[in-house]
Design a protein that fits this description.
Blueprint (H helix, E strand, L loop, with lengths): L5 H19 L10 H21 L19 H13 L4 E4 L6 H12 L5 E6 L4 H6 L13 H4 L2 H18 L2 E6 L9 H5 L4 E6 L12 E2 L7 H11 L5 H14 L3 H8 L12 H11 L4 H10 L7 E2 H8 L3 H9 L4 E5 L2 E5 L2 H11 L7 H11 L7 H5 L2 H10 L8 H13 L3 H19 L4 H16 L3 H17 L6 H20 L2 H25 L8 H18 L3 H20 L8 H14 L3 H18 L5 H17 L2 H18 L4 H13 L13
Parallel strand pairs: 1-4, 1-5, 2-3, 3-4
Antiparallel strand pairs: 6-8, 7-8
Helix pairs in contact: 1-2, 10-11, 12-16, 13-16, 17-20, 20-21, 20-22, 21-22, 22-23, 22-24, 23-24, 24-25, 24-26, 25-26, 26-27, 27-28, 28-29, 28-30, 29-30, 30-31, 31-32
């Protein structure tokens, strides 16, 4: 049994031993006295055993089901795929030029054989195998998710993911489709191809360079019956003699290319000269096709999206695009609109996406509406659940990859993306993006400017939330100096300046300099009140820097200082006033629900110090309920709330309840956050104080 399973597994073994002893010594008081009691105990034990084993199983969660679509001929390729997979001689690899029909053949194979497999995973290989298989959205496996605290590097997590997929392949019928796998080499390719499952690959490169023999070259449709059926199917009717002649001539010019022939049959002819690459032909199609301004904009924006596309509803929400533009592009086969899991998804064929990026050149300027649309979602990430935030993950990373040097005039949009990154646990990515933004801001505005100072505070927040407090203090001080020395350019200056005072106050409190911390906290509140009055006077409110909400947070900061000073009643009253302010905003419909957890944690702490345990328990239960609604069960935030709940039980004298909670926390920490050794040791100490007597080992020191 591994260390991460220690508590759960030992408890199960103990219950099984207890059952055997009770069965053996029926005549003693602890033994089973009645058959009904024994049967109930056995049923419970079997249920616990089943649940324990179920928690350890891996299953594919991101299943794929091929949709019905127009498809004719190509039987020779489908037959060859079946032969290769039946022989278990390695992956079946369809290779040929872009748009020749490889993916359509792969989907047709899935449709034909879907019911023969327990699970099908259909992956677009637009990135390397390691990041692709470590992506828990594209390759979702039950009872497995990435945690930096647990695995450290993604390299270690890749090994764990391969182990899980191997187990799935050995215990079930599993089909893995790697679509558009155009990599010349990948250090993990051999390991992927060795998975014990059926593997189907489509690619534009010769698989011989991978060391894979027996690839299936995909060429144009066979002349004669297959091609004629294709024409009739996609045209929807029998062509005239003149049309047959036109189609044959066109087929000769394009070398029988499947995608371009489909476009031709829908009334789109991408140029007469087909001597260049497929990408050049696609560009020529854009030039010849009479696209309107908003249609070009839709192609430009969608070319930035990940290959799996974007849901239609979300795209309209963030872009403001008129549905008519998308519908016209869909009619011309320039946009794919497919139904997936009950909703429509918009995407571009990879050839068209590349051509759109080359011809219409997406920039931060011409895609500013799209960036701002995602900003309006990301700016309130803290009050969205982990899964809600995860929904926009592919798009945030698409922007960061496309625009690695943020424009200074978009600094607030990128500030929201940076906050989203660290809230979701992407601290390295947040630091990289914020550092790039800082360089752009300093080059544009200089080091002494409201916008630059605000960016410095974001860099400090990245370090603070990644628990690098020393660097965080440096950047908080840098932001404070910049903001104190500059002139304001809008009302939000006072919010940002007050924030710098509040953050320095928090740092002073951590150092134990409580008098300085209190002075800085009062200054923050004075500036915050000025900002609030300005917003009321001018009738202008900023959602990303809400005056009332911000003032309540700074009031809570002062309450914490008073608590540390021993002024407990004042601290409680001030903390309750701050909580009430945020609660009033929530009742007004503002999305600050999760923020209540931070205030309620302080109230529980203050009530415990005042020995008002009844009210403390009521607040703690509400706090935990809110945390669970917004964060995952095993998240640090929820574990912190459970720790405080256990502390309260211990104070109340309910040692058994406290020990049980501490034990659960230790188990979860060792499983998902093994590098948080100080936290684990702290909980162990509390556990022992509550009467915990089972030895729990920390992970080995390196």
């Amino acid at each position: 049994m591994g260390k991460n399973e220690y508590l759960d597994g030992e408890n199960l073994e103990w219950q099984e031993r207890l059952f055997r002893l009770r069965k053996k010594y029926r005549e003693t008081p602890p033994g089973f006295r009645e058959a009904e009691e024994e049967e109930k105990s056995l049923r419970d034990l079997r249920r616990i055993r089943k649940e324990y084993e179920e928690r350890k199983k891996y299953r594919i969660r991101s299943g794929y089901r091929a949709l019905q679509e127009c498809f004719v001929g190509r039987e020779r390729y489908l037959t060859r795929i079946e032969e290769i997979l039946a022989e278990k001689s390695g992956p079946a690899v369809l290779y040929g030029i872009g748009g020749i029909g490889k993916t359509a053949i792969a989907r047709a194979y899935v449709r034909r054989h879907q019911e023969e497999y327990d699970s099908v995973l259909f992956l677009s290989c637009d990135i390397g195998f390691s990041p692709l298989f470590c992506d828990d959205i594209r390759v979702a496996v039950s009872n497995l998710h990435y945690s930096k605290d647990k695995y450290g590097s993604k390299k270690q997590y890749f090994k764990e993911k391969m182990k899980a997929l191997t187990e799935i392949g050995e215990e079930s019928r599993f089909l893995l489709v790697l679509d558009d796998c155009n990599r010349e080499a990948d250090p993990y390719m051999e390991q992927i191809f060795a998975l014990p499952c059926d593997i189907l690959v489509t690619t534009r490169v010769d698989p011989a360079m991978w060391g894979v023999a027996g690839g299936i070259p995909v060429t144009e449709l066979e002349p004669g019956r297959e091609w004629e059926e294709f024409v009739r199917a996609y045209r929807g009717s029998e062509p005239t003699q003149e049309e047959w002649k036109e189609y044959r001539e066109y087929r000769e010019r394009i070398g029988g290319h499947t995608l371009l022939m489909m476009l031709k049959l829908h009334g789109v002819e991408p140029g007469k000269d087909a001597s260049g690459t497929m990408e050049m032909i696609a560009k020529d199609m854009f030039r010849r096709f009479p696209l309107k301004k908003w249609e070009k904009q839709a192609l430009r924006e969608l070319s930035l999206m990940p290959v799996q596309g974007i849901s239609e509803d979300l795209y309209y929400q963030v872009s403001g695009m008129a549905p008519g533009a998308v519908e016209r592009l869909e009619d011309r086969l320039l946009i794919r609109r497919e139904e997936k899991e009950g909703k429509y998804v918009l995407s571009l064929h990879p050839i068209i996406a590349k051509a759109a990026r080359d011809v219409f050149v997406p920039t931060q300027t011409n895609c500013r509406m799209l960036l701002h649309g995602f900003y309006k979602i990301a700016r309130n990430s803290w009050n969205r659940t982990y899964l809600e935030n995860q929904e926009i993950e592919p798009y945030i990373f698409a922007f960061l990859n496309a625009f690695s040097a943020p424009k200074p005039w978009l600094f607030r949009e990128y500030g929201a993306f940076i906050a989203w990154l660290w809230i979701q646990g992407y601290f390295e990515e947040a630091e990289k993006c914020c550092r790039s933004l800082v360089c752009q801001m300093e080059a544009c505005y200089g080091a002494v400017h409201q916008a630059t100072g605000e960016t410095y505070l974001w860099m400090a927040a990245v370090y603070y939330n990644s628990m690098n407090f020393e660097k965080a203090d440096v950047w908080y001080e840098k932001g404070f100096q910049s903001l104190n020395a500059c002139r304001p350019f809008d009302d939000r200056y006072f919010n940002t300046l007050g924030t710098s005072y509040a953050k320095l106050s928090r740092s002073a409190r951590y150092r134990g300099d409580l008098e300085l911390a209190l002075d800085l906290a009062d200054e923050a509140l004075k500036i915050g009140r000025k900002y609030w009055d300005l917003c009321e006077e001018r009738g202008v409110w900023y959602e990303e820097s809400d005056a009332q909400n911000t003032w309540c947070h700074w009031l809570l900061n002062k309450a914490r200082i008073l608590y540390d000073m021993g002024r407990l009643q004042e601290a409680w009253e001030l903390g309750h006033q701050a909580w009430k302010g945020v609660w009033d905003e929530v009742q007004e419909g503002k999305n600050y629900g999760y923020e209540l957890v931070e205030f309620e944690r302080f109230l529980v702490k203050a009530l415990m110090a005042l020995e008002d345990y009844g009210r403390a328990e009521e607040v703690a239960e509400e706090m935990l309920k809110t945390a669970l609604a917004y964060r995952m069960e095993g998240s640090k935030e929820v574990l912190s709330c459970r720790e405080q709940m256990a502390d309260l039980y211990l104070k109340m004298g309910d040692e058994k309840k406290a020990a049980g909670l501490y034990g659960e926390i230790i188990q979860k920490l060792m499983e998902d956050f093994p590098y948080q050794k100080d936290w684990i040791r702290k909980i162990q100490s509390k556990w022992k104080a509550a009467g915990g007597n089972v030895k729990v080992h920390l992970i080995d020191e390196e």
